[in-house]
Amino acid sequence: MGFFIIFIIFIIVIIFIFSSKKFSPIPYFPSQPVDMPLIVKALSLKNNQTVIDLGAGDGIVIFASATEAFQKKLNTKFIAIEINPILILVLHLRRLFHPNKKNIKIVQDDIFKMDFSRYTQCTDAKFCVSTTFYLYISPWFLEKTILNIKNQVSKFSVVSYMYPLKFKANFNKFKVINGKNKIHIYS
Ligand SMILES: C[S@@+](CC[C@H](N)C(=O)[O-])C[C@H]1O[C@@H](n2cnc3c(N)ncnc32)[C@H](O)[C@@H]1O
């Protein structure tokens, strides 16, 4: 009986965290596993690049791309930003067993309030190739998020899963990859 009550409380806490606006203003939906090779290709991994997944979920994109970078012996850095404490726990556990864990950072933060420049600062310009933001967030939050990045980071590219940006004019190049869902690349 005691175990049953603890189990019910546990389920209620999980439901609360996943439905609470504080912890998940954007619901948790992972990118489609079938699109992972195309997403990794869209990120165009290279040395001295930082890939930041804004709202990283369970880390499906971060861990798949970190595996690719590891196999190609790239020094690409990966940062998973997530607000939901349960997903943060999942991300830390997955990172622990990842072969490329030294290049993966897990950060609990709010993508609408955070200081992006902390993660994109270059100590030596010649080693700062690029920062790529991966976004799979509700379309009505996309514009706000990109403007927020733009105010803090001078040079970056964006890979947006499923939803296109309304303001392509801010970028020089634009490409779409057709997977199960569309992958929009802006650089
Ligand atoms: C649609 S899911 C995408 C997950 C992952 N990027 C992927 O492609 O599989 C959106 C994620 O953003 C997280 N999230 C929602 N609001 C956030 C916020 N303000 N700051 C950080 N993460 C947030 C949610 O918890 C959820 O995991």
UniProtKB/TrEMBL annotation:
One of its GO terms (molecular function) is protein-lysine N-methyltransferase activity. Keywords: Methyltransferase, RNA-binding, S-adenosyl-L-methionine, Transferase. GO terms for biological process: methylation. InterPro entries: FAM173A/B, KsgA/Erm, SAM-dependent_MTases_sf. SUPFAM superfamilies: S-adenosyl-L-methionine-dependent methyltransferases. Gene3D superfamilies: Vaccinia Virus protein VP39 (3.40.50.150). This is Methyltransferase domain-containing protein. It comes from Candidatus Roizmanbacteria bacterium CG07_land_8_20_14_0_80_34_15.
